[in-house]
Q: What sequence folds into this?
C-alpha cells in the first residue's frame, strides 16, 4: 500500500511536470507566432475600413453594481473599435444601479420586440439613450435570475452582431480589446466559435474614469498571487492547448463567443456553477454532433483587468464555487469522457480536466499528509521528504517564472522592471502561502457539492475603480 | 566553465541518494532539471528586461537625433536631393549598426504618417529620405534572408513604406509553404508590381483566403484605384470556385461602383449554387441600384433560402419604388417569421413618407385585430428612428 501511494504520487507529479513542460513549449511557439502574425498593422486595417470590421456586442450583466456601474459603462463605450454595441443587463438590482444608468446616460424605455431565443427570466423593458454620445448603449432590465448565466442569456437574446463578448461590469477592458480579440476570427479558415484572452488583476493598477492609466502588480498578497496564477493559466495552459484546438474553458470574465452557436447550443446554463466551462463544452459538442469544423482561439495579450479577491474570506468563496462548478461540470458532462465521437473534447479535454484539474487538489492534499505520515513513522528520512517537497515546489515555481518571461516577451506592461521581479519573488512564496489555501477551498467546494443541494452565490466586496469612492459590500451574482 | 564544481555536486547528490529506491533517484534527477529550468527562466527574464530597456534607449536616442530633421525635410516644399539629406542628417550608413535601420524605419514612418495626415508630406523628399538612409535596401535584404515570421514582418514594413522593392525579391515568398508569408507577399506584389499586378487575383488570390486577406486586398485595391482605373473585377471570379473569394470580389464591385458588371451579375444568379454568393449578388444589385433586376428578384423570392430572401428584402429597401413597395407589403402579410417581418418593416420604412404611411396602416390593422406583438414590432421599427439607432 505504501509503495502504491508513493508511486502514485510520484508518477502523478511527473506526469504533471511533463504536461506543463509540453504546454510551455507549445505555448512559447504559439505566443511568438501570434505576436508576429497579428501586429498593429492588422488592427489598423479595421480602423481604416470600419465598414469591413465585423460588429461585436458586449454583454455585461449588472446586479447591485452602483459603485462601479458609471465608470464601467463609460469605459466600455469608449473602446477603440468601429462597430460595437454595449448591452448592460440589469439583473433586478435592488440598489441604485438602474437609477444611475438612466440618469447618467439619459436612458428611456423604447418599444422592443423581445424574442426569447434562449431561456432567461422575464425581461421588463429595454432602455436606450436619445443622446448620440451613448447611441451604442442598450440596457435590458429584467427580473433577477440569481445567476450570471440567466442575465447573459437575456443579453444574448438582444445582441445584434455575429459575435459577443461575455464580461462583467467589474472588468476593465483595454482600449484596443475588440480589435485584438477579433483578429483570430478574421484570420481563420475554420469557423472560430470562441476566443479567450489573458486576464489580470486590477487591484494595484491606477484607474481614472474606468480607464487603466498605469498597470502595476497588486499591492495585496492574494491578488498578487492570483496575478501569477492567472498568467500561468492563460499564457501557458490555454495558449498551449490552443495549439491543438483543445481549450477547455473560455473564461466567464472575458471571452468572445459566436452568437449563433451559443443560441444553437441552448445558451448559458443557469443551473451551472461553472457556466463558462459548461458553455464552452456544449458549444464544442454542438459543433461535433453536427459535423461542423470549429476552432477555439486564445489571444495572449492582456485585454481584461478584473478585481481579485482582496482577502482570504473572498478567496474562499471564489474557490469553493469553482470547486463546486468543476465537480458539477464533470458529473453533468460525463458522457463526453473518453468518447471518441466528441473528438478532442472527449479524448483530451475531459481527461485533462478530470486527472489534472479535478484530481490535483485531492492528490496534493492526501499526498502531503501521506508523506508526513511516512516521515513520522520513519518510513522515509528527511532527505527524501524534502526532495519530494522540493519536486512539487519546483514544478509550480519553474512554470511561474517561465510564464512571467512570456508575458514580458509580449510587451512591457509594468513601467518598472522591478515590478516583474516582485512577481517572481512572490511566485517563490506562492506554494507555501497561497497554494495550500486554494487546495483546501477547492476541496471544500467538492464536499459542498456532494453534501448540499442549494448554494448561495457569494458576496464580493467591490472596491470601485476610483480610489476615492466608498467601499461597498454587494451581492455578486457573477 | 566550472565543470568540476558541477561534477562535484552531482557526485555529492549521487552519493547522498546511493542505495535509495529508483523512484527517489529519479525524483532527484527531476528536481535538478526543474532547478535548471527555474534558474534559466530567471536569467532569461533578466535578459529580456535588459533587451527591452536597451531598445527603449536606442529609440529615444534615434528620435532625438533624427525626428526633427526628418520632419523638416519631409514637410518642406523645397526639393532636397539624397546627398543634401545625408549631409543634413549627419548619418553614415556604412558605419551604422544593424539595429539602427530597424529603429530608424519606425521614426521615418511615424514622421511620414504625421505629415501625411496633416497634408504636408513632400513625397519626393520622403522617397529621397528612404534612399539616403538606405531603408528599402535594408528591408529587401531581410525579405531575402530572414526566417518566415521576420520575413512577413519585413514585407509588411515594405508595404507601409510604400513598396519600391524589386518584384523579383518577392517571387520566392509568393509561393512559400508558409501561408501567412505567402499571402503577405502576394498582397504586396499586387500593390506594387507594374507588369502583371493582378496575376494572383485572377487565380483566387490564395487557397487559404480569410477575412483578414479581404481587408488587406481591399486596402491594396484602393491604392491601385488611386493610380488608375481598376479592370472589371468580375473577370477574376469567372473561374473561381472559392465562395469567400467570390463574395469578396462582389463586395469590391459594390465599393468601386462597377456598374458595367451588373447585367452579368443578374445572369450569375441562375448559375450560382452557393447561397452566400447569391445573397451577395442580390445585395450588390441593391447597393448599385440596379432597378432592371426588380422583376427577377421578385420572381426569385419564394424559391430562395432564408439568407437570400433576407438579402432580397434589404435590396428592396434600396430599389425604392412602387413595385418594390407592393412586393414588401405582400411579403410582410405573407410571413409569420418575426425576424423577416422586422426586416421587411425596416425596408418599407426606408421608402420614406410613403413607406411610413403604409407602416401606420399595418399598425392600425394590427391594433384592430388585436395582434399585440405585431403592434409592438412595428412600434419598435418606428422608435428606431426616434431613438438613435446603432
A:
Amino acid at each position: 500500500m505504501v509503495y502504491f501511494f508513493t508511486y502514485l504520487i510520484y508518477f502523478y507529479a511527473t506526469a504533471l511536470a511533463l504536461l506543463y513542460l509540453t504546454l510551455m513549449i507549445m505555448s512559447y511557439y504559439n505566443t511568438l507566432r501570434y505576436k508576429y502574425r497579428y501586429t498593429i498593422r492588422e488592427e489598423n486595417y479595421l480602423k481604416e475600413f470600419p465598414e469591413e470590421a465585423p460588429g461585436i456586442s458586449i454583454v455585461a450583466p449588472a446586479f447591485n453594481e452602483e459603485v462601479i456601474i458609471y465608470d464601467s459603462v463609460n469605459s466600455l463605450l469608449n473602446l477603440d473599435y468601429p462597430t460595437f454595441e454595449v448591452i448592460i443587463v440589469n439583473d433586478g438590482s435592488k440598489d441604485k444601479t438602474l437609477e444611475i444608468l438612466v440618469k447618467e446616460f439619459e436612458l428611456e424605455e423604447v418599444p422592443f420586440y423581445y424574442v426569447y431565443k434562449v431561456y432567461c427570466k422575464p425581461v421588463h423593458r429595454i432602455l436606450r439613450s436619445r443622446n448620440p454620445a451613448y447611441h451604442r448603449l442598450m440596457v435590458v432590465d429584467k427580473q433577477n435570475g440569481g445567476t450570471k448565466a440567466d442575465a447573459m442569456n437575456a443579453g444574448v437574446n438582444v445582441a445584434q452582431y455575429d459575435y459577443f463578448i461575455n464580461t462583467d461590469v467589474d472588468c476593465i477592458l483595454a482600449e484596443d480589446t475588440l480589435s485584438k480579440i477579433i483578429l483570430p476570427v478574421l484570420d481563420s479558415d475554420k469557423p472560430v466559435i470562441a476566443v479567450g484572452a489573458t486576464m489580470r488583476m486590477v487591484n494595484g493598477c491606477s484607474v481614472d474614469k474606468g480607464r487603466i492609466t498605469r498597470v502595476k502588480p497588486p499591492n495585496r498578497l492574494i491578488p498578487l498571487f492570483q496575478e501569477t496564477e492567472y498568467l500561468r493559466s492563460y499564457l501557458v495552459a490555454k495558449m498551449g492547448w490552443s495549439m491543438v484546438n483543445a481549450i477547455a474553458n473560455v473564461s466567464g470574465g472575458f471571452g468572445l463567443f459566436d452568437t449563433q452557436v451559443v443560441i444553437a447550443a441552448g445558451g448559458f446554463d443557469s443551473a451551472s456553477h461553472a457556466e463558462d466551462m459548461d458553455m464552452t463544452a456544449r458549444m464544442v459538442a454542438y459543433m461535433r454532433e453536427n459535423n461542423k469544423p470549429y476552432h477555439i482561439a486564445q489571444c495572449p495579450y492582456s485585454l481584461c483587468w478584473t478585481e481579485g479577491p482582496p482577502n482570504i474570506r473572498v478567496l474562499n468563496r471564489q474557490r469553493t464555487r469553482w470547486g463546486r462548478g468543476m465537480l458539477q461540470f464533470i458529473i453533468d458532462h460525463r458522457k463526453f469522457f473518453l468518447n471518441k465521437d466528441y473528438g478532442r473534447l472527449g479524448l483530451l479535454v475531459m481527461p485533462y480536466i478530470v486527472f489534472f484539474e479535478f484530481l490535483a487538489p485531492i492528490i496534493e492534499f492526501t499526498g502531503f499528509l501521506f508523506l508526513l505520515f511516512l516521515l513520522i513513522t520513519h518510513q522515509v528520512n528527511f532527505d527524501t521528504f524534502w526532495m519530494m517537497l522540493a519536486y512539487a515546489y519546483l514544478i509550480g515555481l519553474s512554470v511561474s517564472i517561465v510564464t512571467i518571461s512570456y508575458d514580458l516577451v509580449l510587451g512591457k506592461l509594468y513601467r518598472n522592471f522591478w515590478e516583474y521581479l516582485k512577481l517572481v519573488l512572490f511566485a517563490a512564496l506562492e506554494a507555501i502561502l497561497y497554494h495550500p489555501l486554494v487546495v483546501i477551498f477547492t476541496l471544500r467546494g467538492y464536499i459542498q457539492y456532494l453534501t448540499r443541494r442549494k448554494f448561495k452565490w457569494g458576496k464580493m466586496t467591490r472596491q470601485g475603480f476610483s480610489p476615492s469612492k466608498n467601499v461597498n459590500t454587494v451581492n455578486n451574482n457573477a | 566553465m566550472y565543470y568540476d564544481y558541477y561534477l562535484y555536486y552531482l557526485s555529492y547528490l549521487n552519493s547522498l541518494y546511493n542505495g535509495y529506491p529508483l523512484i527517489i533517484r529519479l525524483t532527484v534527477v527531476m528536481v535538478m532539471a526543474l532547478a535548471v529550468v527555474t534558474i534559466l527562466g530567471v536569467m532569461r527574464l533578466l535578459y529580456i528586461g535588459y533587451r527591452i530597456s536597451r531598445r527603449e534607449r536606442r529609440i529615444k536616442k534615434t528620435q532625438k537625433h533624427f525626428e526633427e530633421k526628418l520632419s523638416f525635410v519631409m514637410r518642406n516644399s523645397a526639393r532636397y536631393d539624397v546627398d543634401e539629406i545625408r549631409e543634413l542628417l549627419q548619418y553614415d550608413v556604412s558605419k551604422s549598426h544593424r539595429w539602427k535601420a530597424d529603429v530608424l524605419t519606425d521614426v521615418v514612418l511615424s514622421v511620414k504618417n504625421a505629415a501625411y495626415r496633416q497634408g504636408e508630406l513632400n513625397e519626393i523628399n520622403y522617397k529621397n529620405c528612404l534612399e539616403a538612409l538606405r531603408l528599402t535596401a535594408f528591408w529587401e535584404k531581410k525579405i531575402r534572408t530572414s526566417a518566415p515570421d521576420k520575413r512577413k514582418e519585413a514585407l509588411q514594413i515594405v508595404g507601409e513604406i510604400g513598396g519600391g522593392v524589386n518584384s523579383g525579391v518577392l517571387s520566392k515568398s509568393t509561393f512559400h509553404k508558409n501561408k501567412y508569408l505567402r499571402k503577405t507577399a502576394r498582397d504586396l506584389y499586387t500593390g506594387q508590381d507594374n507588369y502583371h499586378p493582378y496575376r494572383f487575383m485572377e487565380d483566387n488570390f490564395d487557397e487559404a483566403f480569410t477575412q483578414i486577406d479581404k481587408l488587406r486586398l481591399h486596402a491594396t485595391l484602393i491604392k491601385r484605384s488611386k493610380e488608375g482605373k481598376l479592370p472589371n473585377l468580375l473577370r477574376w471570379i469567372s473561374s473561381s470556385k472559392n465562395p469567400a473569394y467570390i463574395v469578396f470580389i462582389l463586395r469590391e464591385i459594390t465599393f468601386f461602383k462597377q456598374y458595367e458588371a451588373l447585367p452579368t451579375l443578374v445572369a450569375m444568379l441562375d448559375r450560382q449554387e452557393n447561397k452566400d454568393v447569391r445573397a451577395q449578388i442580390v445585395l450588390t444589385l441593391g447597393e448599385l441600384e440596379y432597378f432592371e433586376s426588380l422583376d427577377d428578384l421578385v420572381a426569385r423570392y419564394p424559391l430562395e433560402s432564408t439568407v437570400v430572401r433576407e438579402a432580397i428584402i434589404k435590396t428592396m429597401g434600396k430599389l425604392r419604388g412602387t413595385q418594390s413597395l407592393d412586393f414588401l407589403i405582400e411579403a410582410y402579410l405573407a410571413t409569420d417569421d418575426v425576424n423577416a417581418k422586422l426586416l421587411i418593416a425596416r425596408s418599407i420604412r426606408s421608402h420614406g413618407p410613403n413607406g411610413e404611411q403604409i407602416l401606420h396602416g399595418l399598425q392600425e390593422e394590427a391594433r384592430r385585430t388585436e395582434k399585440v406583438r405585431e403592434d409592438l414590432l412595428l412600434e419598435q421599427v418606428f422608435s428606431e428612428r426616434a431613438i438613435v439607432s446603432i
